[in-house]
Amino acid sequence: MSHSLHRYGNKEDLSNDYCIYARISKKINGEGGGVKLQRIYEIFTSEDFVNYGSLNAGCSHLSGLDDDEYKRILLNSSGIIVTYSSLESVRNVLKKLKEENLGVSIVVSGLIDETVKTAHQLDLKPHTAVLSLGVYGNTKLLPDEDTLKITTMCGHSLISSQIVQKAKLEVCNGQCASKAAMAIERPCTCGIFNIQRCSDLLNNTLDNESD
């Protein structure tokens, strides 16, 4: 799941940022896969979550994706991804998935130490680990680190540094950080943008400006 792999930040601000992805293969377990994804959607959303979305529908849950419409889309889909800000929610979701044993591949994206520890607590053995090796090339062309923490939450690069800079300015001028985060999130239709982490990061920007 490489599009959620390159989230930039430190251990502290990444500790509340996780994605869980369920994926079927039409050639291997595609028969009845849509019904399984619908059930996984119910499990995913049974715990506190931040967001999910659909490239087919062209919007995320936070941007108005209808729940019933999304469940219909899943019948002809090959995957579903949901974003969480709580490791406890991730643990509870994995526990429920293990109990139902639906035979669908599950990927957890987040701090590797925490995700592996959580898997072992549930007597689950991680199959594969994929790590980001960082950014190479002329890194001077990149935005500042605080901006990268936000833009990299959209793995399809649909959130520009300009919209983040605009949001930072608006927050500094008194706009609510959560409202500014909602405006930033809108282009990320797959739903892996963590609006709660974004809001915290914007508030940190405000605190830094005050200092």
Explain how this protein is built.
There is one protein chain. The chain is α+β, with helices and mostly antiparallel strands. The chain has 2 domains: 2-121, Alpha-Beta Plaits; 139-210, no CATH class. Helices cover 44% and strands 11% of the residues. The protein has 9 helices and 5 strands. It has helices at residues 11-14, 33-44, 67-74, 87-100, 112-121, 145-151, 161-172, 177-185, 195-210; strands at 18-23, 51-54, 59-60, 79-84, 105-109. Strands 3-2-4-1-5 form a 5-stranded antiparallel β-sheet. A hairpin with a 4-residue loop joins β2 and β3 (59-60). It starts with 10 loop residues before the first helix and ends with a helix.
Radius of gyration over all CA atoms, rounded: 18 Å
* Average pLDDT figure: 90
Taken in chain order, the helices and strands follow as HEHEEHEHEHHHHH
Number of strands: 5
**Helical segment tally?**
9
Identify the strand order in the major beta sheet.
3-2-4-1-5
Largest sheet: 5 strands, antiparallel
Name of the CATH class of the largest domain = Alpha Beta
Structural class, by secondary structure, is alpha+beta
Low-confidence sequence ranges? none
Kindly state the percentage of residues in helix. 40-55%
The CATH topology of the largest domain comes to Alpha-Beta Plaits
Total number of distinct structural domains = 2
Proportion of beta-strand residues: 5-15%
